[in-house]
């Protein structure tokens, strides 16, 4: 009997040790056979860090949850950054759980986030690395268009940088352009100043794309592009208050059509939809028949017609632009192992890093295609679950999800670890 108990205890300890080793080294294990690339980005979706409001609601449980969640998210950032060694670390928006927090609480959460995202250590010392951090503003950071306030905008930009920005990266002799959009103010916004700034950036990108269409564009947007109801978990829902956006799952059809036609991004990387999603967008340059624009004699027949419209015209002719989009943009579809050549832009919505969604980190790689030949298909993409492998114009793009595990399973493991520290020695003393 005692020998059987000893064997059971040993087996239990072996399984428990293996589980702990995996949890603490999951990113290193995931990176073991991950192919090398020229440019790598680590993407983290919607951490939505909570704070004082949760403690007021649930004083004891709230403090425990905040402590656990901070360490959980910190482990995700730190482990995947160390294992995959990215060039860029991008948080896809909704850094905080609410934009309506006090100044003091805001700065407490910034300090927590810097530790969570592995920018500072536990002693507030800066951590050096070869990667650059970028942050995208989400609806919980600055609000939707109806609630955008200068105060929210200013304190965000003072601490996280511009709402819209771009940079170039050299990839094996070529160049890629990366651009972050202020998606929160692209559709109808109460403070027109911020909407004009958002669109000025987009239209400057359009000019750059027209001058150098050969440079692939990777676009970042907290809010995903418009898609049909069955394309992802989220639905194409927009609510307005006083004619300004109060809530939206996707960008409006007109805004999405403009971005697809006029920027022609190779990839769009978005957040907001916590479940994650992959979709292919196919765009034709011309409509089957011209769409008249009011009584001014103007019409939409080609991409260039749409790209020449001013912001006021984009608002005035929403219905006409949506009709043009129906003629020129195929409904976004998913794709599987069989793959698809029918795409102009691929979109990956990054799954949330929150524990409820398994603590996801997205790894996005770009490198020159080893199999590219001018006579081969210019574009091809396959999806394996939430992982994507795509080729376009001589480059390969790879997106991969790395999951830590559901927070409930991790909590249970921690409890078992604590209990085992007391129970296992007691059992061994009894049977030895």
From TrEMBL:
Location of this chain's protein in the cell: Membrane
Keywords noted in UniProt: Membrane, Transmembrane, Transmembrane helix
Sequence ranges assigned to domain Calcineurin-like phosphoesterase in this UniProt record: 70-275
A GO molecular-function annotation: hydrolase activity
GO cellular component: endoplasmic reticulum; membrane
Regions that span the bilayer: 408-431
GO biological process terms held by the UniProt record: GPI anchor biosynthetic process
InterPro entries per record: Calcineurin-like_PHP, Metallo-depent_PP-like, PGAP5/Cdc1/Ted1
Topology within the bilayer: Multi-pass membrane protein
Pfam family, one: Metallophos
PANTHER family reported for this sequence: METALLO PHOSPHOESTERASE RELATED, PROTEIN TED1
Protein name: Calcineurin-like phosphoesterase domain-containing protein
Gene source species: Coemansia pectinata
């Amino acid at each position: 009997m005692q020998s059987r108990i000893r064997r059971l205890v040993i087996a239990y300890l072996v399984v428990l040790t293996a589980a702990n080793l995996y949890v603490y080294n999951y990113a290193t294990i995931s990176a073991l056979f991950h192919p090398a690339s020229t440019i790598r980005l680590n993407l983290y979706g919607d951490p939505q860090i909570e704070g004082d409001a949760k403690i007021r609601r649930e004083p004891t449980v709230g403090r425990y949850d905040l402590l656990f969640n901070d360490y959980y998210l910190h482990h995700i950032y730190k482990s995947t950054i160390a294992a995959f060694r990215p060039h860029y670390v991008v948080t896809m928006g909704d850094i905080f759980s609410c934009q309506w927090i006090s100044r003091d609480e805001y700065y407490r959460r910034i300090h927590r986030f810097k530790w969570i995202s592995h920018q500072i250590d536990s002693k507030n010392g800066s951590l050096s690395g070869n990667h650059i951090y970028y942050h995208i503003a989400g609806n919980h950071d600055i609000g939707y268009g109806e609630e955008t306030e200068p105060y929210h905008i200013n304190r965000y930009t003072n601490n996280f940088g511009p709402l819209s920005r771009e940079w170039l990266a050299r990839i094996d002799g070529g160049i890629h352009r990366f651009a972050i959009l202020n998606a929160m103010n692209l559709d109808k916004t109460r403070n027109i100043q911020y909407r004009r700034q958002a669109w000025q950036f987009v239209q400057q990108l359009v000019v750059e794309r027209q001058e150098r269409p050969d440079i692939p564009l990777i676009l970042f947007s907290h809010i995903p592009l418009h898609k049909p109801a069955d394309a992802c978990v989220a639905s194409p829902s927009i609510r307005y208050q006083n004619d300004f956006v109060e809530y939206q799952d996707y960008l409006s059809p007109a805004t999405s059509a403009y971005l697809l036609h006029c920027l022609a991004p190779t990839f769009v990387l978005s957040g907001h939809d916590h479940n994650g999603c992959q979709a292919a967008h196919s765009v034709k340059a011309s409509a089957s028949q011209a769409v008249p624009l009011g009584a001014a004699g103007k019409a939409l027949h080609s991409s260039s017609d749409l790209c020449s419209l001013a912001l006021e015209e984009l608002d005035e002719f929403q219905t006409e632009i949506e009709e043009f989009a129906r003629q020129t943009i195929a409904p976004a579809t998913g794709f599987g192992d069989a793959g698809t050549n029918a795409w102009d832009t691929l979109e990956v919505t990054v799954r949330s890093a929150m524990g409820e969604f398994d603590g996801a980190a997205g790894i996005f790689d770009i490198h020159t295609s080893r199999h590219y030949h001018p006579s081969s298909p210019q574009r091809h993409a396959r999806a394996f679950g939430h992982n994507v492998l795509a080729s376009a114009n001589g480059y390969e793009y790879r997106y991969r999800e790395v999951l830590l595990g559901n927070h409930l399973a991790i909590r249970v493991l921690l409890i078992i670890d604590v209990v085992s520290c007391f129970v296992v020695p007691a059992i061994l003393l009894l049977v030895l």
